[in-house]
């Protein structure tokens, strides 16, 4: 599998012949929602076992043509990423820690036996697309969500790593993921359906993980919850993560506790929040957390706040859990002080409202 960088890491821009009229675009940007509006272009590259990565460009966003036997349609050989471009106070645009997404994308590619796109090509592709569709980057608090992905395109009905693949980045102006849920979200504790098991693909960002989680998410909705909280597959006892977010707890003695990596996604937001913890008087701790500890801690006040992190969700306060064993209310059922402070600091960094002392912003 080629990991040679794309020559010169170039994604030449071939402008669409049918750009969205500016007035229509501005109308869409006024209320983009989440994940339903798409920009005019995509970044793309093709990979074959013989040639490695080639045919790189930013070009018109058009429907894909795939053979009905394309491997991704049968064996789910697919990986993706999610990151955002943020409008800065001076009108420029910045990405948030895209190097971490590039590294995770490479990790996912190895796990799914897909070709590894070199990190510099990943960042170049994303940057080239944002430049081409710069007019689609909304004003805060909205941002431009970027979805890089690789799919196995080879037409072959046999189970082996495909010898042809396509990388694309599509972009979607996005408002808050949980619009109207600023007062906090409620999670359904899934004590039967698991998302990932040791040795599986839980730490890769592949479509199959999400397909496997949808039934649990539907169950969460049936129980009037916003999302699901997955437990470990072996004992159904240890907290893992939510459908699209990592989970963190604040304790009364000043710890910010989160489950360790392994079967969960190594979230960029999770990592960033752990790095910001000390500035909020919190000690970051990665260790297993049981459901019993969650229940008892929320009941006796030793767990004061719970929140979830993700690129799309940013930081979402979790104010309650529901489960077959009963409900749990966190604190007084409203977003916690630390949660709100971390949320505010993260947004200030992403939207360029404070100096970038950690080198987390990449100007496009
Ligand atoms: C399963 C899962 N966990 C955690 C996260 C949070 O990761 P990040 O902060 O990198 O967006 C996501 C979102 O990408 C996710 O899909």
UniProtKB/TrEMBL annotation:
It catalyses: L-isoleucine + 2-oxoglutarate = (S)-3-methyl-2-oxopentanoate + L-glutamate; L-leucine + 2-oxoglutarate = 4-methyl-2-oxopentanoate + L-glutamate; L-valine + 2-oxoglutarate = 3-methyl-2-oxobutanoate + L-glutamate. It comes from the Bacteria. Keywords: Amino-acid biosynthesis, Aminotransferase, Branched-chain amino acid biosynthesis, Pyridoxal phosphate, Transferase. Coiled coil: none annotated. Its EC number is 2.6.1.42. Its cofactor is pyridoxal 5'-phosphate. This is branched-chain-amino-acid transaminase. It comes from Actinomycetospora termitidis.
